[in-house]
Structure formats: C-alpha cells, structure tokens
Amino acid sequence: MNEKRTTFNTKIGPVMLAWTDKGISKVKLPNTPALQISPDTKEERPPQWVSLAAEKIKKHLDGEPQQYDDVPLDLQEVTPFNKKVYEALRRLPSGAVITYGDLAARAGSRGAARAVGHAMAVNPLPIVVPCHRVVRSDGTLGQFSALSGTKSKRQLLEMEGCTFEES
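The structure assignment produced for this chain is given below.
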C-alpha cells in the first residue's frame, strides 16, 4: 500500500491522517496508541480532497458536527465484516446513536453485536467512521478506545446533541 500522511493541529491536539490514491486509510487521534502507521509512510502535503477531510475533522472536534459519507475511504486493510459495519455506520447521521446489535443487523449480520464491538475497538478511522455513535442496548455509552475513553465518547456525542444520564 502506498500510504502517505499529514498531521494537523486541532482543538484536542495533533491528528494524523493517512491516505492512499483510493481514499483515507487511517485517522490517528491524540492519545490513541493502538493505531499502527507503517514506518515507510511519508509525510506529504495532502491533495485537496484530503485537506477537505482534515478541515471537516477540525470543525467536528471544534464542536461543529460533520458528515463524512462523501469522504472516500481505503478499507483494503480491514476485514470484509468490519468493512460492512463501517460502511453501515457511515450512513448514521450526526446526533444519532445506534446499538451494537442494531448496527450488526444493518451490516447484514444480525446477532453479531460482540463482533461489532470488536470492529469499533479496531476502527482505523475514528470520527470519519463515527464509532463514538455506537452504544449498548441498555442505552449506556459502552467503551471507547480513542482519546480519553468514555469521557471523550460522551463529549463527542453531547457536542452532536445527544444527552446521557450519569451512569
């Protein structure tokens, strides 16, 4: 994979965006060590379509929710199941939430809530593939592996207009 990357500053700190000719392949948020970036990925000036995606991410993290369904993605490094889940999740509008089970059903795998949970945990495109919008069936937030965990998930959802009682 001929991946390139750019880093840009946001309200929450530096964000790294990687892309190929096919689309955005990774988004690395601050304090998210799990995402692996190939050592041969070169820092480059992004083409306009990548700059537009970066600008959307900046706006989103500044409190102005964005939709990313028009941003091309390169999902060749994810499993076929995860790809279906990410594509289904991208269609969920800002300000809406979905349960792990309902997302599994939308992705064509009813009953695969745990597998959806794993797909969210390894999501290489947080914010762009809005894993923060996936909640437990009892309405509680569930886990969030990016940024500072559940606290960040709550902040992202509240910024999009969702409210949750303290749990």
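Interim note for the steering committee: The radius of gyration is 15 Å. The mean pLDDT is 86.
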